[in-house]
Amino acid sequence: MAVQIPKSKPLTIKPSYSYPSEKMAVVTRLVKDRAVVIFSKSSCCICHSIKTLICSFGANPTVYELDERPDGQQIEKELIALGCTPCVPAVLIGQELVGGSNEIMSLHLKGMLVPMLIKERAIWL
Q1: Edge-to-edge, what's the strand order for the sheet holding 96-99?
Q2: What's the CA gap between 76 and 78, in Å, rounded?
Q3: Which of 2, 22, 26, 62 shows the smallest number of beta carbons within 10 Å?
Q4: Which residues form a coiled coil (predicted)?
Q5: Three-class SS of residue 91?
Q6: pLDDT for 12 beyond 80
Q7: What pLDDT, in 10s, does the model give residues 54-76?
Q8: What is the pLDDT of residues 111-120, one digit of tens each?
Q9: How far apart are CA 49 and CA 115, in angstroms?
């Protein structure tokens, strides 16, 4: 039985009237050409759980620890402007903002996370 990925798309990191590209410059540059990106903080246990979950499927996400980066506060501001509250963990799959821990866990429990990862070639089966 094939799992259907929802037709409604998550928020995409593209310039818009509300969020011009110059306000998202750092996030846009960091997610470019990456299948899975996780913005995290090294001291956040929820972030650790989300990273562990995604890695458990065989994905190798690009992880940015905001508390270890000099531009971490700028990235936090950009994530908040994109609608991430709280700003970590923030998961992008295929350069689309999927959301935080609640959204990732919901997708996982519905059996929709793995198909998304496969579609973006983050994992192979």
Answers
A1: 11-12, 96-99, 90-93, 36-40, 62-65
A2: 5
A3: 2
A4: none
A5: strand
A6: no
A7: 999 999 999 999 999 999 999 99
A8: 999 999 999 9
A9: 20
Evaluate the omega torsion of the peptide bond into residue 15 and state whether it is cis, within 30 degrees of 0: no
What mean pLDDT is predicted for residues 75-102?
Answer: 92
Pairing mode of beta strands 36-40, 62-65? parallel
**Structure tokens given for 51:** 């990273």
> Which two structure tokens, joined as six digits, stand for 116?
């998304």
Place of tokens 């929820």: 46
Region at 95 (left for phi over 0; alpha for psi -120 to 50; beta for the rest): left
Q: How many CA atoms lie within 13 A of 81 on its CB side?
A: 22
